[in-house]
Amino acid sequence: MDLKASNVHAGGSVERAAIEEWSFDEQYHTFQSFGYAQDAAGGQKLVGDGAAADAPRPRAKRKRGGDAPLGTEDEHGVWAPEPEHIDEDAPEDLAARKAEIAEAVAKPKSATRAYDQNEDFDRRDERKISHLLPARHDRDTTAIEAKHAFHGDAMRDYQGRSWTRPNLGELRPKVDDDHDCFIPKRCVHKFTGHGKGVQCIKLHPTYGHLMLSASMDGSAKIWDVYNDRRCLMTYAGHAEAVRDATFSHDGSTFATCGFDRFTRVWDTETGAALHTLTPNRKMCYCVDFYPRDDKILLAGASDNRIYQWDLRANEEIVQEYNHHLQPVNSITFIDDDRRFVSTADDKKIFIWEHNIPVPMKYISEPHMNAVPVVELHPSTNFWCGQSLDNTIVTYGARDKLKQMRKKTFKGHLNSGYSCGITFSPNGKFIASGDGEGKLFFWDFKTTRVYRKLQAHDSGPCIGCAWHPLEPSWVFTCGWDGLIKLWD
């Protein structure tokens, strides 16, 4: 007889049993606690004290901490406060009192507290009790009313010139290769007025006499740079923080995008909101005008796409660039504005031909990190990106479009922050903020750290901008709500 093929062995016979480990543990603990258990052979047969199986199990009570009342376990196994005792001989409002107690027992205590007392709670708690809360802000359906306020003396001077026009007598000649630039040493002015942190700053692209700032308080402001350096106009059109802002190439308009999922185009002079855009109800992280046509606007959105609008075509989306796998962080035009670079959280860099929705170059390496900020060098031959491995990487912007590994700038700590990058007007220096509030300056040719300043005391130095005409003026902004001018 073949013992291997049979259940009969030299020591006896073996019967196959199908029982899971968790089932065995359950029956073991039941037998230890109540004196009976289910027979492993199957069926309804019990082993041990069969009478104990027919008796109801005692229900344990547990304290909910401190002097809280005892709780009981309902038929669903959920611990709830023990109902109050009701006297059957009470007055005629007995039924109403019973209904009130039943509702209090059924409603979770945490949800009731968050709803009644209007306490602060995180997004996870909000989703759990969304059916109890009133409707959220109208940000998901309609934008808030756009408002503006002028803080200057007059919209036009005695010659009828707009307040946005510069005083040409105050301006320096344009800085070029023949002019030298200098590293600033000290803070000479602080711009105050935003209620919360300032996310980005942009100078007027031609003369730099005006400065645009976007803040987490949902507003954007235009500041005077040369005269008394005060706020000239406030633009309020976002229900939540403003993520990015940019001037058109002539400064007559600018665009802002916020966490309320709306992108707006403003008239700089009048303060009117010319266009209100929301691409498929998605949030935009960056906006940029096409340099050759201010009526073409591009925006990188949270659904991994880049949207392009023609503002003359009834605010319709005329093109989509859809190859990224995560939200798009930056859009930068290169190569005489014929192409643009896009970066995203997927750690990939795409080079696109304008108006062609297929990338012409795909840059992705295993060692690469996300590049949330990109800036074009004044010579237009290079562009630099703020890599989240605490470095600034450099790529060619003309023909080869490959990385220049010898031009990597290190020393700052920017991991986790999309700190801005700026160049001196002659391209000799590159500057960047970091997560500890410092402002770093490097020599672009040698990549050596030239100087570092403690720009902001609390929070990161999130943005910086070098004045296009003044050789030693650098502006910085941070989450402390301040904008500083360094000279």
UniProtKB/TrEMBL annotation:
It is found in: Nucleus. Keywords: mRNA processing, mRNA splicing, Nucleus, Repeat, Spliceosome, WD repeat. WD repeats lie at residues 191-225, 235-276, 277-319, 321-353, 421-452. Residues 47-85 are annotated as: Disordered. It comes from the Eukaryota. Signal peptide: none annotated. GO terms for biological process: mRNA splicing, via spliceosome. GO terms for molecular function: mRNA binding. One of its GO terms (cellular component) is catalytic step 2 spliceosome. Its main location: nucleus. This is Pre-mRNA-processing factor 17. It comes from Aureococcus anophagefferens.
